Amino acid sequence: MYSIWKVVLIVYCLVVGVTAERSKAFDQSGCDRNCDADPVAKTCEFELKIETYTTMSKACYQCPATLSDCNRPHCAVADGFARQIYTVNRQLPSPAIRVCEGDTIVAKISNEMANGEGTSIHWHGLHQPGTPYMDGVALVTQSIIQPYSDFVYNFTTNNSGTHYYHAHFGMQRGDGIAGALIVKQRKNRYPQYQDLNSHTLLIQDWYHKLAIGQGMLHLHRKGSNIPETFIINGLAHSNLIQQYPTYNVSKGQKYRFRTINNGVMNCPIHIHIESHNITIIATDGVDIEEVEADTVLVSGGERWDFLLDADLEAKNYWMVFQGAADCENITTYGILHYEGARNVNTSNMRDPTAIHPREMRTVNPFNKGMITPDPDDGQIILSEMKSHEPTPDWLSQQPDIRKYLLLGLNKVKDQVYDVSPYYPCIDDDGSELASCTVLAQINNVYGLFPSAPYITHYDEVPPELVLEVGGKTGKNCSVEFCKYIHRLSVTQGEVVEFILIDRGRYWNISNHPMHIHGQYMYVLDLGQDPSMVTSTEAVEMLDTPKRDNRTFDRPIAKDTIMMPVGGYVVVRFKARDAGPWLFHCHNELHVEQGMFLVIDVKSRGPERYPTDPRDQISFNQPGVPYELEPQQNCTLSQMSTCTSLEIGGFAAIIIASLSAVTFLGLLGMRCCGYKFSKKAI
């Protein structure tokens, strides 16, 4: 009898072992490659497990006393201060994904956060043509990924460049759920420049509390929104961590650096490398004509790529990350280390505090060079840059839709932060509104997310909850609290022009990096009032004479634009793809305050949006076997069928029989050495 069961177990091991080998855990082996040399598109599978975690966990052993321990697996360091975070595969930042243009990404997200939070993942910079349900915006393009549930994203990478992926629910991306997503071009424009994985810099402002906690203190108690520091690829030098983020180069070699600002609050960041010029070549994944500069300012959600020639003396040089806006007093440092130079000893280096990137030749400056643009003033603004690609024909036609969008901070009697009669916003002298919490809004509207995914429940939303952009409310929203699902209805193929206006009403340091999903915006014009305060009426008077005289000489395209305080930016885009696309400020606190709207692009075909082939099946229940064969277009509801067909009928019968016997199943998994928590990337 024993020998029979032994044979059964061996067969079980062979079958499960083959299955496990064939579907190894979202391993990107073969996907991070030379895209010129390997033109065949691949399906790249990744398994990403989101957990509640902590910096300086026991995985760090004796870090920071033993610096080598700080590099151990699962050791999230940041600035050395122990605090709760969220991680993907217990890494800070989240593991980078690198693929080639045209590859298909299949990412299984497992939400295992112990505090019971839901989540979703947005693929920031990817346009999702034909797959709006993969954009990753909870309650707009998909259901929330519930605790202890899974969601599979499956989409093709149609636009190359430096992008990233991050949580798009609450303020989770500020606490660790963010990682680089590099989609390499099929024809590399700069093959002579080394594009090293280690030269992708994911930067963000860092706090000693969860981002939502820091934000609520700021809004409900007028607490600080100033970070402790900036972290670069999950690390910052501090009084606890005597280690600098270090990036290696060899003298005589050429390198491409990719920068991403995962800014949580109001923290644009200058990037400067001591004694080196940089050549800006791309922004938000779009190639531009080369621009020589000393520094580039990267706002929240933006990406900028630059080239660096390592042609100086082989020694160590400072990399300076200096904040602007609310973070103008925050600076952190890294090291550019030439091969052959002595080990880093900062006592032999220049005093880094003497380096001031804000005073240098800057690409994308903050509140500079926009009132009267001057090519010789050392400030290179967006409207002075050119795209590397020709201008699309549709850009110069009259737009089908033109909307003025007032972006900014507004004081109203709200029922969120100033609840009457318990703590109304009335000062001691009786003056109303003076002490109200300042709300970040678009056209004085507090944006509201629907209670169910808009993409599948758009026809169930109560009409009284929806406000079309520019529509009438019956209220004076400049002084009354207006809360709606803020929507712009567009038909696929229409050309839309936004005149974005930053009112600049309260502070001259509060900026709004505006991010659009599903497409690029072409930057046609920008300017700034000298007083840094403006209004829709003032900008309309200024802009109207220019409407018929816009220039269309290869304007740059971006998906994230940093607004000048008290200024305006004119952009156009073509609504190529049907779907509900979010347009919002990328300051997490401002999104939480409702600074967003939905661009509802309706298809010209019979269906309003492209249909999710899975019929919006978002989750597989805990305990259901997970197996993915994208070549067969298996859906989550078909996983067991596709798996059994692939393995073979006889083997499927054996698996089904053995699965019914828990004891034998456990022995089988042990004999195979197979674990369901598969290898992380």
Task: Report on this structure.
The structure is a single chain. The protein folds into 3 domains: 48-187, Cupredoxins -  blue copper proteins (Immunoglobulin-like), CATH 2.60.40; 190-366, Immunoglobulin-like; 393-602, Cupredoxins -  blue copper proteins (Immunoglobulin-like, Sandwich). It is built from 8 helices and 34 strands. The protein has a 7-stranded mixed beta sheet with strand order 11-19-18-13-16-20-21, with no helix packed on it. Strands 24, 25, 26, 28, 31, 33 and 34 form a 7-stranded mixed beta sheet that branches. With 681 residues, the protein is mainly β. 12% of the residues lie in helices and 30% in strands. The radius of gyration is 26 Å and the shape is globular.
> What profile does the largest beta sheet have?
7 strands, mixed
Cα end-to-end separation: 43 Å
User: What is the number of strand segments?
Assistant: 34
The order of strands across the largest sheet is 11-19-18-13-16-20-21
In total, the number of domains comes to 3
Number of helices: 8
Overall form: globular
CATH superfamily of the largest domain: Cupredoxins -  blue copper proteins
Mean pLDDT value:
85
The portion of residues assigned to helices is 10-25%
Unreliable stretches, pLDDT < 50, 5 or more residues? 5-26, 616-681
The radius of gyration computed from the alpha-carbon positions, rounded to a whole number of angstroms, is 26 Å
Report the CATH architecture of the largest domain. Sandwich
CATH topology of the largest domain: Immunoglobulin-like
Strand content: 25-35%
Q: Structural class, judged by helices and strands?
A: mainly beta
**CATH hierarchy class name of the largest domain:** Mainly Beta
